[in-house]
Records
---
Amino acid sequence: MTMITFTQDNTRFTCRIVGVAIDQGRVLLHKAADDNFWALPGGRAELREEAAATLRREMIEELQIQVDVVRLLWLVENFFQYRGLDFHELGLYFLMRVPADWPRRMENGPFLGYEQGVQLFFQWFPLEALPAMRVYPSFLASGLQDLPASPQHVVHIDP
């Protein structure tokens, strides 16, 4: 399949589907080994793939688990710089539920996942710890504290 991503000059557009897993007052975040920030797990949508199907596919690829996609939280127009490129990202952020019997649900430290051969570190963090952490997009530090009752449109710029 073809990922919904293209680059023009120094700008990359991508359509990213994101999962918000909150369990026991903690949220599941991930990062690449060479990154100095955390983000919510997810991945790029493919052409003609429904957003919820993208999220389920990404969680199977990265964590080998089947998740329940509960509901849309945010539609985010996210603008940021990463690895020398200006990004224009359209993100759909879904509340998702991990399996109750998933052993990683109870982990306190980091654990490994993989995305196309890239090692990813996953970890559960207490929601109250987020404001002191480097989490992107940065609106999540407060947004995850109080999830919206209905979908919200967010335009966000991280310098």
---
Amino acid sequence: MTDTVAIITGGSRGLGRNTAIHLARRGVDILFTYRARQDEAESLIGEVRSAGRKAAALRLDTGKLSEFDGFVAEAGKTLEAWGRERFDFLVNNAGGSLHSGFAETTEAQFDEIFNVHVKGVYFLTQKLLPLIKDGGRIVNISSGLTRVALPGSSAYGAAKGAVEVMTRYLAKELGARRITANVVAPGAIQTDFSGGMVRDNPEINRMVAGFTALGRAGVPDDIGPMIAALLSEENRWVNGQRIEVSGGMAL
């Protein structure tokens, strides 16, 4: 995948970071977004460069559509500085969690989740279409919670469900440009997501391990390499699919 460029939202931490590192090891230059932690962004830039690839970080809140035009302009300038007119891969990874019962979820909470996970993915992808090359690839990150209903995740699960339907439409409508679009749906992963709940709470970690066929909670290295592989030329014929990467969760 030499001389290819990936844009990864929420790339400075967790699954986005792991994906960036594994893509860099495969010869991909990385342009990623971060929302607040500049130190983590700078750390990732160093890791990508140590793998021999170019890296740049741009601050973006994917829940604020007013920031998108400025981001796209800066992304274009970065590509130009790298001697590129277009980029190859888009990984819509940025997001946050919400743990709230259906009866207790407020409109403000609902809007925040949907702004990031649905409107943000939809309109950022739309605005990046002129920059993504024909034959490029899009991966949207969903969740095992679209298939397995756990109390307290109704808004988050519904948002990710919308992303999954959206992705099939992207695959259909962008097919004329030979752009593929797929969903990767991780299971419960040991990161700082949801305040590190799966990683740091032994009881929850054991619960997850108990309903996962492979007998443990996932780790970032279970996900990043899979996304990198999905973006490879070997998987060029995979399109419009939801691929769950959960070790066999709740089978």
